[in-house]
Amino acid sequence: MTERELDAAGVTDPALREAYRHCRRLNARHGRTYFLATRLLPVERRPAVHALYGFARWADDIVDALGTGPDTARRDAELAALERELEKGLRDGESAEPVVRALADTARRYRIDHAHFADFMTAMRSDLVVTDYADYAALRRYMHGSAAVIGLQMLPVLGTVTDRETAAPHAAALGVAFQLTNFLRDVGEDLDRGRVYLPADLLAAHGVDRERLRWSRDTGRRDPRITSALRAFERLTRGVYRQAAPGLAMLEPVSRPCIRTAFVLYGGILDAVAEDGYAVLHRRAVVPRRRRAVVAADGLVRVASARLRAGSAAARRPDGVPPTGAEPVEPRMVEEVA
Length: 338
Fold this sequence. Notes:
Shape: globular
Strand content: under 5%
Low-confidence stretches: 313-338
Largest sheet: none
């Protein structure tokens, strides 16, 4: 699959091909849901998504993987080095770092605004020193760089049937919705890293603070006040999904099945959290395999339909140019997404 993706994308340089392969491996290892949804994209667009996600994952790993406390200086130095390499790569189109090289190539091919990458790095640096958020407004300012810009980076790759400015707010909202979902699912893990992403004023409205969360995490005991706060955060997150939803129809038809699948699967995490009684301080909620398979199958049907419509349109064109990504849909993808 990897070679076919790179061939279709017109990536011929051996070192650049290896850089994209490296990004694809990062995506596959860290982002199972989104990696598998990416398989529903036209084949020539997948390397770009792997580059964007691979870079984001790499930077996020620097922030998260080295612990807290004394390691902050080390992580700050690593992020600074990455930022310098990113600026150089975006400027020159070359980098000794495979992830940056692939990212720079993707940014050039799709004319992605470099400011989105700068905003992302700003958010990563803030994660080194900011461990909680007073209110949702403060959290949203952080998520502009950590999540909204990911949606904005993706938009040129996905393509739109409207002007990009109309679709952009919905793409940004979808990035935020996905991250809020992760925040809810990972409350316990984030707490172990010293971070609380649930706004302090939302927690306080339900009689909860960091110490109460820590107590529940450490003792394994439940507290109805915590459950109430988590339920409120779930409602807030679903509201952001509603803001994002109109953007699905603004994407190019061949891109919609991928993003719709991710939309449904991530939304399913919220369902799983609720069905598990909001026990996220004690265990990670998981979307059942059977439900994932149903969503994947629906995505494949939508892919086939989009390609059929695109193929019919191409057949009517004087030059007979086939649609992009018109390779056969692979049935085994249902099992893989599941």
